[in-house]
Amino acid sequence: MTGTPDPQIGDRYGKWTVVGDVIRLKGRKHAQVRCECGIERNVQVGHLKAGESTQCRQCSGLWVRLPDDAVTYDAMHQRLRKELGSASEHECYDCGRPAQQWSYAYYSGDRERLELRNGCLLRYSIDPDDYYARCVACHIKYDVEITAEVGKPVLPDQVALAA
After folding, report:
1. CA distances, 75 to each of 37, 90, 125, 145 (Å)
2. pLDDT of 77-96, one tens digit each?
3. Kindly report the CA angle at 135 between 130 and 136, in degrees rounded to 5?
4. How many other C-beta atoms are found inside a 10 Å radius of the C-beta of residue 68?
């Protein structure tokens, strides 16, 4: 795939149509694409070129929506493994080494959930698109950096809501 041109606006990859310029996110090229159903996402260019991403999860039939209150932290990680495979089957989003864990991106708005476990508040999203495969070192580094950046303190009322 090296040396092949970047996707251009209007190019089609399965049900995806490129609708925006190629941009770099975390050092990797991504193209803004729209599925035939109307869902838009930024997809890694390499995944488009290799045919690894040809449509959104809803159109692929992989997305099964459970009631929001039924999706626990453990259930979400089971969903990730079912839909995206083991994180170890992917390369780390940040450094390119083999990944070992799924990492929550923290920018999920109303999709974010809280669960209290053993005195710790777990933050997670109910949307698989809010996760990246990371190696342990990059996962820890990301969590430390993002927590400082977005300032997500745990408030007493959040703990009560999560219980």
Report:
1. 27, 20, 11, 26
2. 888 888 888 898 899 999 99
3. 100
4. 10
